[in-house]
Design goal:
Largest sheet: 7 strands, mixed
Number of strands: 29
Number of domains: 4
CATH superfamily of the largest domain: Immunoglobulins
Helix content: under 10%
Strand content: over 45%
CATH topology of the largest domain: Immunoglobulin-like
CATH architecture of the largest domain: Sandwich
Order of helices and strands: EEEEEEEEEEEEEEEEEEEEEEEEEEEEE
Length: about 350
């Protein structure tokens, strides 16, 4: 038959061409196909319904993304805020492409010229530097442009500061327990002679063993090492923010008084107020350390009534008879909490 039609499938979805017309299609992101393997199957059928057997089949990889690239170091280095390396440390770039493969890698240092990466390289000039780098695949897809800022030393020792627990135990970068500080030094030349440290405005001390910080506040640990030929490391520092105690809750109303319609009439023995009519609950929240008050919640008989910051002012004017409990829970920024309760007898119709 001279009349024919082409049928085809892409990833199992059937498509139908027109009579006596060639079929053209593209597998790309514009047509909704993502990176990865795709299956193609196609065959012809004549006007009498005779189908081409066997069908043509193939698998094709759609490669639309550039390679992933990672920067590593060879030799001595420290993972500080900016990685600290020596002028002997090598910089290694590794790229991987899950499609057609890596074609080449390019990098530049600071505002220098782009260079094709051939082998690990070093930086001899002391100071802060930024390395920019990216990779291309065999289809010239370009990967993400990365950058990393590093600090190059000059042969002096490198001291690392380790903290236990490794991560803050509270919220927002605050520790809520004592912290142990450990200093570790290394020098590939003459070797480390000694390490010095100080806490806040204290005196410099020779480091002998791990030490503990266990008082609230923001603390700065400064430290450096000296090698056996007198090369002194630049002073580095680590900040530790510590808040181990919850906020202070000061309830100013109700106190141990007889209250009639929100007015204190006479003091009562003990610590249980007697209230007739409505009452305004008032409290002030203070945090004795630096993290500050995060939030405060007021409950009456475990039912939340209001949320606030460092002050509570809530008028309780509900139908209540008999004994009830006011509870205030205050949270600081570090995640500590403090609870204060007042038992009261109230008659409010």
């Amino acid at each position: 038959s001279e009349i024919w039609k082409i049928y085809y499938k892409i990833d199992g979805v059937l498509y139908e061409g027109c009579w006596n017309k060639c079929v053209n299609f593209q597998i790309n992101e514009i047509n909704g196909y993502g990176e990865g393997w795709h299956r193609i199957e196609y065959w012809a059928v004549d006007f009498a319904g005779n189908e081409e057997i066997p069908h043509h089949k193939g698998r094709y990889y759609l490669d639309t993304e550039g390679p992933d690239i990672v920067l590593n170091f060879g030799g001595i280095w420290e993972n500080d805020v900016a990685p600290l390396i020596t002028n002997e440390t090598t910089i290694i770039l590794n790229a991987v492409d899950y499609g057609c493969g890596v074609k080449d890698i390019y990098y530049r240092i600071d505002d220098g010229e782009w260079q094709k990466y051939e082998k690990p390289f070093g930086i001899s000039k002391k100071g802060m530097h930024t390395i920019y780098y990216y990779a291309r695949d065999l289809l010239d897809n370009t990967g993400t442009l990365h950058s990393k800022t590093i600090q190059v030393g000059n042969g002096e020792p490198i001291t690392s500061c380790f903290v236990m627990p490794e991560k803050p135990t509270g919220n927002n970068g605050w520790y809520t327990c004592p912290v142990t500080i450990m200093l570790s030094s290394k020098d590939e030349g003459s070797g480390v002679d000694y390490t010095m440290y100080k806490i806040d405005n204290g005196a410099w001390k020779r480091y002998v063993k791990p030490f503990i910080i266990n008082n609230d506040g923001t603390h700065v640990i400064q430290y450096y090492s000296v090698d056996k030929v007198g090369n002194k490391e630049e002073i580095k520092e680590r900040k530790i923010r510590m808040d181990m105690y919850g906020p202070e809750i000061i309830i100013s109303k109700p106190l141990s008084y007889l209250y009639i319609f929100n007015k204190a009439i006479i003091p009562l023995p003990g610590d249980k107020p007697l209230i007739i009519g409505k009452i305004t609950i008032e409290a002030t929240i203070k945090d004795i350390t630096l993290s500050g008050v995060e939030s405060t919640k007021l409950y009456v008989d475990n039912n939340i009534k209001t949320s606030s910051g460092d002050k509570v002012a809530y008028t309780l004017n509900e139908r209540l008879f008999g004994n009830h409990v006011i509870k205030i829970i205050a949270y600081d920024v570090a995640g500590n909490e403090e609870v204060k309760e007042i038992k009261m007898t109230i008659y409010n119709a």
